[in-house]
ECF transporter S component
Amino acid sequence: MQRRSNAYHISVLAVLMAIVIIQNIVPFFGYIPLPGLSITTIHVTVILAAVVLGPRDGAIIGGTWGLIAWIRAFVAPTSPLAPIVFTNPLIAVVPRILVGLIAGWIFMWFQKRHQKVLGMTLAGVAGALTNTILVLGLIGLLYSHQAAGFYQVNLSKLMPYLLTIVASNGIPEAILAGILTPLIGTPLLRFKK
């Protein structure tokens, strides 16, 4: 029984890692580009890994996403701002690892209280917002002059502009994750048993 459980765990981890790699490579699958920003869908895969496999494996999948984003910033940047900000692993990798950790911890807390669906929903929302807030916050904190130039806003108006992106970009991503995580996670958890 233990061997079957380990095989399931490794298989799901490998499949989710492959999905994250594909989402980073195939256009419009992991990032939906819009003028001045990009709607991300990769966080849903990371959150699902955290829910189904636990925070540690969620962090591994998130780290995979972050490493790919970091490498792409050097070899195939997704925007003119990417080679400036995503070459910093603090922005490219750390928030993505934290998506998996935070989503996994939130789900575990609710699972212990027998509220799996609520836990999955909140893990999805929190994971998505973790990515958006940390990435944009770190860009605003560490690269304010470059970001203001890229977004063509006055430096004094950069933080309100980034908060607008959080609202216009991060909230839809959080809603998407909050809906998809229980829809996909529930059958995966049932199959895990």
